[in-house]
Amino acid sequence: MAADYPLTGDTIEGSHELPAGNILYRLDGEQKVTALSDVTISSQSTENASSIIIYSGKSENSSLDLDMDGHSLAIDAKSAGIYITKDNTNINIHNADSIESTVDRHNFVIATKGNGSIINYEANNITFNKSEVFQDNPMLVVGNKNTLSMHAGNDLVFNNYARANTLSAY
Fold first, then answer.
1. Main-chain dihedrals φ then ψ at residue 14, nearest 5 degrees
2. Among 153, 158, 124, residue whose Cα is nearest residue 138
3. Which residues lie below 8 Å from residue 159, measured CB to CB, with a gap of 6+?
């Protein structure tokens, strides 16, 4: 699906090939999005430019509420996944049948700057995969009074094929 990035509409569907240097969602205020079908996101990076799937680098007190409406979310991140740098940023990905994310050399979640931010995943099945492409970056990094929560109706699976930590929290 050809799209202008970052996305600003209130619906999402289909496949998104996020080119290097682009952001899928840039948080600036409150954004509510509903999935109309299964969603697949593939992000790319180059040596000089990386894409970010969800970024809060410009505005604090912002949120993204992504209601998957019973559909599945698949992410193949060859870039940063969720990158939070501001206070009170809330990301809620919920009501999903499944969420499956694979990340390579980057962190899938990094919330070490700002305070009071919340990242929440809710699905019947949640799977996070870390490839061994770049072994030292943790899959999920949370600190500075920020919160990461996951609610799985059935399975919550972490497959870490690198020597890096699965979760680094401080």
1. 70, -155
2. 158
3. 127, 128, 129, 130
The torsion region of residue 22 among left (phi > 0), alpha (psi -120 to 50) and beta comes to beta
Instruction: In whole angstroms, give the CA distance from residue 103 to residue 27.
Output: 21
- Distance (Å, whole) CA 58 – CA 84: 10
| Structure confidence by residue, pLDDT tens digits, 38-63 | 999 999 888 788 889 999 987 899 99
Beta strands 63-67 and 90-103 are parallel
**pTM given for the model:** 0.93
Provide the token pair at 147: 């919160």
CA 158 to chain centre: 15
Q: Are 27 and 89 within 8 A, CB to CB?
A: yes
